[in-house]
Structure formats: structure tokens, C-alpha cells
## 1
Amino acid sequence: MPHPKSPRPLAGVGLMLVAMAILPFIDVIAKKLGQAGMPILIVVWARALFGGMMTLPFALGAEGRRAFHPQRPLHHLARAALLFGATFLFFNALKHLPIADALAIFFVNPLVIVVLSALFLGERVGPRRWAAVAVGFVGTLIIIRPGMVAINPGTLYALGAGVSLGSYFVMTRHIAGAADAMVLTFQTSAIGAALMTLGLPFVWQGPDPLQWLMLAGLGVIATLGHVLITKAYEHGEASLLAPLAFTEIIMATLAGWWFFGDLPDRWTLLGVAILIASAIYISVRERRAKA
């Protein structure tokens, strides 16, 4: 009988940091393809298609043919629409904003999760965590600066992406444990790819060989990142690892500077710092609440 893996927090931290270091390259590829004039729907479709192909062997290994038959199809349909709707909005944001700025606004999603979990899942949120959510939204407002600068369309796209992804995570939390995580990932990608295939005839532009390689790279990087995060959580507690997700902004900033010559301004950095502090506090409070 196999023994369960013993926790190795340092291994979990390392795996999480590697995942956060590679995930911004999804944004680099999406931004490059967008600048080349490729319709965003094709980019998101490829992200879903190749992601589904990458997770298919894991799903078949876990449940066999049952992986093709989700138990709650309407629920999975809604989750896929939210996840790839968030991807579509975020990739559109990248057409208007530097990667780091778009990602900073997008990180409103942990705050959205707290609000929606309290409203729809009945989770108890104390006054301190509500205060942390309010502070986090202040950080978002500092990044956006409404009334001080003209609202960039990319800001609204990134904000919409964060709200959509937060909603997706709340729906995922609602069915947590109902199926193997890789099976759920495959089903979501497959449904998302099927949905977007319906719209392809209206926007299709045949990618060249290099673009096909880049589109496949989206699925490879996303799947590898997901596997690394899953493995990280096998070794470390969520309260330890969740705040490390914000290190993605560091690599996003470096990637944006290296590939596009973009750097966030001081107000964006201040807003990001407030958002990170708020999210870490929420994570710590959640750990204490479950203790």
C-alpha cells in the first residue's frame, strides 16, 4: 500500500515559484499574436484546444471514458464560459496595456472570491477580512486612477477578466472533490474549445507555422503551470502557497520590459503592493478561521 507523500514546504514553495515564473509567457505569446493581427477568439480557442489535448491523457488515466461525460454539464458549461471569457477579456486587455499593468488589475480576483463566497457559498467572512477586501479595492483604484487619467479600455477588460475568473473559482470551489482535478481541467478545456469553435468561421485567419507553434505553446505552458501548481499543493499548505501567486507580477514585469519595453509606473507599483498585502492578510485570516 503506497504511503502518502510527506509534506515538504520548501519543495512546494519552489514548485509554486517555478509555475509563477513561466505563466507570464502565456501573456507574452498572446500579446505577440494580438500585435500581429490575429483575432483574440482564435488565440483563446487554441489555448482551450491545446490545453485539452495536454490534459486528455491524465483525464483518461484517472477516469477512462467517463472523463468525456461530466456529471453536471450545465455547471461545467458555465465554468468554461467564465474561465475562457476571463481569458478572452484578459488577452484583449493586453492589446491596450503593458503585461504587468493588466496583471495587476486582474489580481482583483482574490477579492472577488471573498465577496462571492460570502454571498453565494454562505462562507463566514469576519470584519477584518471585509476590511482587507476594502483595502484591496483601494489598491485597485490606485492602479486604475479613475478621474485622474483617461480610462484605458484595457483597464475595463482586465477588471472584467478578474471578476470572471473570481466567479469561476467560486463555482469550482462549490464542486471541489466531485472529480479528479485533471479531469475537471480537461472537461473545462474541451467544453471551452467546443464553444469557441462555433465562432471561428466568422473570424478565421489561417495561422502560419510559427503562429501554430506559438498557439500550441499556450496550451503547453498553461498545462505545465497547472501541473506545477497542483504538485506544489501536494507539499505545502494553501495559506503558505497562495500569496506566492503574486510573484507572477515580478516575472510579468521583467517579460514586459524584455519583449515590449514596458515598465509599470510608481502608482501601479503602489497599488500592487496594497493588493498583495491585502491578499496575504486574507490568506492568513482564512488559515486561522479553518484552524
## 2
Amino acid sequence: MICSSDMADLVSGIIYAFAALFVILDPLLSVPIFASMTKGQPSREIHKQAFIAVAVAGILMYIFLIFNTAIFSILGLTLSTFQIAGGILLFLLGMEMALGIDLCRSKDAAPTAAGVVIGTPILCGPGAITTVMLLSKDYGILIPFIAITLCLAATWIILYFSAGIQRILGTVVTDIMGKVLGMLVAAIAIKIIFSGIIGTLGLPITI
């Protein structure tokens, strides 16, 4: 039987974990990015991409929640090397957004690329994976699992209605936000890459 104090601890833990993950995932930041990448596609395809993005992010977070650092150990990798790789991909995406060019995708690329790129590294990047690992260390599996599920549900709703949000903001505002966010994404990517390099070299520097 679960006492009231245990239930209160469970609820407070879920709320904290949800808040931490929601801030890291920041699905609202993904709206203009997602809208620009799915621009001109039919509603059915946009909704499909929203599901793919959430599925990709969810699968990665659940995997790292359950298997934690064992994945890195098996592959002989570290979080620092993951940061470098993820940061490079994020930087390329930021350049695409800011300059309006296609560095990673050809004109004939499959539309599923939008959902995959939004899923990782935009939603589930090094920051999200690190947060999941830290939450599992502090709370075990149950609380982070529930928090991840709630975050994924909220993210799916936001991306599902991204077309409506885009209409409210307007094309001009969305395009401007996309370019500005592209520069911010590139800047964040550089910071992630730099952090990965510092971690790899074992230098006592924090940024």
C-alpha cells in the first residue's frame, strides 16, 4: 500500500523530471524549425513527421534511460564524443536554417528526414540524453519514464498543430524566426562541440 507521503514524493518527482525534460527538449523552439522543414507538405505528411520526430526522440530517451551508460561502454564511446558528433549535425542544420541552403539534404531526399532531424539532435540531443541519465541516477526508472512519456505527448501535440501555429505567426515572422533560430542553433552547436572537445581532452574548463 502506498502512503500519502510516498505518493507526494512520486508526484513531486514526476513534476520536477517533466519540467527539466520539457525545458531541455524545448518543443516550442522546434515549431519554426519543423514548420520550415515541412513547408509545402500536405497535412497528413506533416502529422506523420510529427509522429516520427517524437518516436525518434522517445526511442533514444527510453534506450538511454534503461541501458544508461552501458551503451557508451559497449561501443567504447563517451558522452564527450557523442557531444562532438551531435554538435556537428546540429551546426549543419543551423547553417541550413540561417542561410536557406541544403547542406545535408538533396531536393530528392525522403520527407522522413524532417522528422528524424527534429527527433535528434533537435529534441533528443546530448543535453536531453544527459538529463535522462542524471534523472535515472537520482530517481530510478519509473519517475523518468513517466516524465518522458508526458513530455513526448506534449511535444507531439505542439508539433501536430505546428501548421496552425505557423499560420498564427505568419510566413514573414516564421521565416525571420527560422533564420534567427538557425544562428542560435549554430551557436549552441559550437558550444556543444567545444564542451565535447574539452571533455575528451580532460581539460579542467567549464563553459
## 3
Amino acid sequence: MKELDGKTAIISGGAEGIGLGIAQVLGRYGMNIVIADINAEQLEKARQSLEQAGTPVLAVSLDVVAVEQWRKVTEQAVDRFGKVHMLVNNAGVGGAPKPIDTSSEQDWRWVVDVNLMGVVNGAQTVIPLIKAHGEGGWVVNVASMAGFVPLPMASAYSATKAAVVAMSESWHAELQDQNIHVAVLCPGFVKTRINLSQRNRQAQYESDDSLQSGSKLQAKLGQQMQSVLDAGAPPELIGERVVEAIAAKELYIVTHPNFRSAVDARFSAITECFKRAESSPLLADIVKQKIPGLD
């Protein structure tokens, strides 16, 4: 994809996993890479890896819930590379696998602030830079198949990923006339350490409950998830798929087509609900109403 050559991408959560996989691939296409991450040790390892591969790289510390840190990332990116053309909102946490009635407020605030508001903070900070040079660009928000097929015991994670899908759909329509292509990446299981997100949990989200080792159920679920992730797709494959998809102007970037039956089942159930609503005598007048902008 020649359009990427010489352009600059900012990637949150870029020190490992999907973020690093995307960085490695974009670097091979000639992009300047700004990796931003909360984990300083992993960030330095990633910087060295990208430099050894010949990729122009800038590594910057970032907690995505802190807007002022996003501003520092963009300032350093512009100082180093001049312009920013792509934002990859990748940073995210898996949360703690718990039933809804035992999830704490701090559990929810942590996942919502990182997975949802972190994406908002990135967009509000970086998109103005993409608009400023008038050359167009890309925004890739990393959601999950859980945004389409919610996971039991992971309601906070599923809710935030569904929100990222919805935001991406909105921004796609909002920014397309400015030559900024927005896409949402919805991977299935990828070989990452998202199940170990607790290692980067910020102090303000800790509680007595979060500092405990957890229940036997949590331990069992964690072991099961670890085995699934270990067998997951390699992050660099996800990076290659991202490039393939943005070249084709895809809105939804799917990396695991084997999830199609589960997604189809969900949307089939929604369609059936609409059919039943259309046949309800209670809603006869509403069925005939036009929807401004959609009809």
C-alpha cells in the first residue's frame, strides 16, 4: 500500500500484542511509527525491536485515560515527524472475569476509562492533527468480536467494545468527506497478554477486592482464557489484515471469519424481533412513520 510510505502513525498500547503487531507491519510499509504505552519496560523492548527492523520509531509513555499525556504524545510526534496521518486506538484491558453482582465500581471504571474513554481521548487529541494538514488519513479503533457477541463474565469488556464499534460507525460517517477513513478492528482470539491486564492497573482503580488473588472461578476462567490466547492468531497477521482492509476502505475489519455463525445468530434474532414488532397491533401507527434522514 504505497499511500502509507513516509506517513506517520500513532499507536496506543503499541509496546506488545496487537499494537506492536500493527506497528511492525506498518513499519514495513514505510511508515514512521509512534508507539505509546503505559508499560515502560515493554515500550523500550518494542522500540529496540522496531529500530532493529529499520523502522523510524518514537516511543512515548502514555496512560490513555490522561488527556494531558495524549497531548505530550502528539507534541513529540509532530516534533519528530512533522505530521500525523494515522491513529490506532489499540490500548485496552480485559478486566477481571466476574459475575455482574460481584464486579466492583472500580472494576467497571477501570475498564470503561481505558477501553472507552481512552479511545475518545485519542480521537479528540489526534484527529485535529490529521485534519490540519488536509492530506487525509486513517483512524483504526480496536474493538473485539465481543463487541458483536458479548462474553459472559466479561460484561464491562463487552460493553466497551460494543461502544467502540458504535463510535467507529459514527466517526466513519462523520469524517469520510474529509478523506479520513475510520475503521474498527474486531479480532477474535489473538496471542496477547490481555488476560494479564491487571499488571498495568492504575492505582486510582485499585480496591481491596482488586488486590486479592480472586476466587476459584476467576482462577479457572483465567486458565481457560490463557490456553485460548496461547493458540490465538499471531499479532503480525492482524497487522497485515489491517493494511489489507484499510486499502479496501472497509469499515469493519474482521480477522476471524469463523465467528460469522455466532454474529449471524445475533442479528437474526434482532431481525425476528423487528418482525414481531411490525405485526403488533400496538405499533401499527409507528410502523408507517418515516424516519428523517433514513427514508
